[in-house]
């Protein structure tokens, strides 16, 4: 499928999605969110793709935010529909993907861009990356999951600081507060993301899916519900060929050859 606002390519078991509106710093409008939903839906259904990377075109931005030009004249009802039926649909598709998603953050990740990165499982940032939730400066609050995912990642105090003040932070600060997993030089960003993706692709796909489901359930509910989901997911792992191969390989002191089933 051809996309107007995205680029999508596959390298073996890795699917690479690139936000492709560099002239507008990859600003996120309705068309971008709709195509993000479509491409991640196709990744979910493609058994050959086991890991996804999400990045932005150009050197300046991952995504500089949700498109203000589109939002400025919205009514309250239109804003509600935009958040629930467009942004939320795409965000949840990425967050709930059964496969790991790595954000390779090459520049500005502001507002909706920061929130989009937080929908991913792992975040690798360029040293030039900048993060922020500046919506308060526009008379708004984050509406693409920032008030919920940011506190879960960095803690309530830091999340309130970022959301209330609306200031940007650099990549080193993002790393120190747990917003990103790793910071690398700009010219090493995609190589590092692909290296992580290759490592993940070599793992058992069912095991990774179960781990993600258990973690996300625990974050979204209470600990008892999370523990119940963990028990269910680990039990299901015992029904896979990969569990048998993994334990056999361990006992035979060799590298497992997972079949992803």
Would you give an account of this structure?
This protein folds into 2 domains: 6-201, Alpha-Beta Complex (2-enoyl-CoA Hydratase, Chain A, domain 1), CATH 3.90.226.10; 205-251, Lyase 2-enoyl-coa Hydratase, Chain  A, domain 2 (Orthogonal Bundle), CATH 1.10.12. The protein is built from 11 helices and 10 strands. Helix content is 49%, strand content 16%. It has a 6-stranded mixed β-sheet with strand order 1-2-3-5-7-10, sandwiched between helices. Strands 4-6-8-9 form a 4-stranded mixed β-sheet. By secondary structure, the protein is α/β, with parallel strands linked by helices.
Q: Work out the count of structural domains.
A: 2
Low-confidence stretches: none
How many separate helices? 11
State the secondary-structure class: alpha/beta
How much of the polypeptide forms β-strand, as a percent range?
Answer: 15-25%
Largest sheet features: 6 strands, mixed
CATH class of the largest domain: Alpha Beta
Q: What kind of assembly state do the chains in view correspond to?
A: single chain
Number of strands: 10
- Spatial order of strands in the largest sheet: 1-2-3-5-7-10
The residue fraction in helices comes out at 40-55%
Distance between the termini: 27 Å
Morphology call: globular
Radius of gyration, rounded? 19 Å
Q: Specify the CATH homologous superfamily of the largest domain.
A: 2-enoyl-CoA Hydratase, Chain A, domain 1
Average per-residue pLDDT, rounded, comes to: 95
SSE order, one letter for each helix or strand = EEHEEHHEEHEEHHEHEHHHH
Topology:
Layout: E1 6-11, E2 14-19, H1 30-45, E3 51-56, E4 61-63, H2 68-71, H3 76-95, E5 101-105, E6 108-110, H4 112-118, E7 122-126, E8 130-132, H5 146-154, H6 156-165, E9 169-170, H7 171-176, E10 182-184, H8 189-201, H9 205-220, H10 223-237, H11 241-251
Helix pairs in contact: 1-3, 4-5, 5-6, 9-10
């Amino acid at each position: 499928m051809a996309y107007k606002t995205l680029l999508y390519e596959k390298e073996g078991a890795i699917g690479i999605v690139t936000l492709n509106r560099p002239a507008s710093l990859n600003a996120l409008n309705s068309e971008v969110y709709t195509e993000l939903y479509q491409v991640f839906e196709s990744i979910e259904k493609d058994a050959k793709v086991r890991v996804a990377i999400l990045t932005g075109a150009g050197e300046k931005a991952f995504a500089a935010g949700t498109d203000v030009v589109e939002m400025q004249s919205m009514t309250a009802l239109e804003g509600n529909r935009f958040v629930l039926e467009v942004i939320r649909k795409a965000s949840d598709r990425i967050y709930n993907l059964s496969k790991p998603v790595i954000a390779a953050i090459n520049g500005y990740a502001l507002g909706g861009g920061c929130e989009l990165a937080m929908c991913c499982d792992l975040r690798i940032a360029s040293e030039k990356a900048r993060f922020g939730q500046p919506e308060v400066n526009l008379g708004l609050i984050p509406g693409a999951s920032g008030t919920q995912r940011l506190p879960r990642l960095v803690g309530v105090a830091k999340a309130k600081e970022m959301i209330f003040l609306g200031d940007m932070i650099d990549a080193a600060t993002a790393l120190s507060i747990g917003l990103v997993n790793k910071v690398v030089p700009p010219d090493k960003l995609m190589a590092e993301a692909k290296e992580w993706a290759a490592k993940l692709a070599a793992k058992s796909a069912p095991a990774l899916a179960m781990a993600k489901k258990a973690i996300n359930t625990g974050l979204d509910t209470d600990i008892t519900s999370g523990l119940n989901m963990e028990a269910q997911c680990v039990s299901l792992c015992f029904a896979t060929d990969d569990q048998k191969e993994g334990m056999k390989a361990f006992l035979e002191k060799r590298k497992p050859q997972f079949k992803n089933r």
